[in-house]
Amino acid sequence: PVSGVRPVATYSIVARDAATGDLGVAVQSHWFSVGALVPWARAGVGAVATQSMVDPSYGPLGLELMAAGKDVRLLLQAQADKGKVNMLSSPSVMVLNNQEASMRVGDQVPILTGSVSNTINTNNVVQAIQYRDTGVLLNVRPRVNAGGLVSMDIIQTVSNVKPVPAGGSEINSPTIAQRQIKSNVAVHDGETLVLGGLIRENTANARSGIPLLYELPILGDLFGKTDINAERTELVVLLTPRIVDNQVKAREISNEFRRKLTGLYDPGPSNINIGTPNYAP
Questions:
Q1: How far from 192 is each of 67, 182, 189, CA to CA, in Å?
Q2: How far apart (Å, rounded) are the C-alpha atoms in residues 278 and 281?
């Protein structure tokens, strides 16, 4: 690479936890694999657990920043019958130092921004439409210092179109549900940043019973029931920057992408020791 310009490869995992049980981290890398579930650590803003997964029983998800050695992939996993995790996206991008990279995975939804009707012919209506990106949207701008510390400006957005209510809407335009994380953080080369805390709760009512009879007014409750389903989800974002300052690292990353594409995975002997966590000041 050109002197003074250090490319950065950014790995991102966006996952959604149903928050019905314990959420954990399964650690996997090119050198070793740990299949057992490791609970989240509770840490303050900017805390780093180096080469370790912390196991204190500290209640709700509170991990802000975590690292477990280079080339480590943190795979979200929930305990069976207690939690559910949906991996929304896992994009990777290469970007130059102090340049912004954007990733978009989703659809463009038309939004009605205005309409004008002819006073003579009311059927002639001109509508103004603007398209809006939905899905998983990631903007990141990394800055690398001489010590290998990577500072990142992060804007992570997950949005989706909400279904139109049964009674319709006052305006002929969809409603977009959006959750966004905007932060500026600094991590070392190869460390994994974990951002969470965006929780959403949904409640849905489902009516069932004996056909026709449960729909009767007043008496319908005798022949049917109403199920209330509550869902609580949390958005979790994992980011791992890798500084690419020589041809060897560039070749390693290229081979890693090649293994992903071909489905080949051959873990070798472990050279990472999981021990006592160390927290940065």
A1: 5, 17, 9
A2: 10
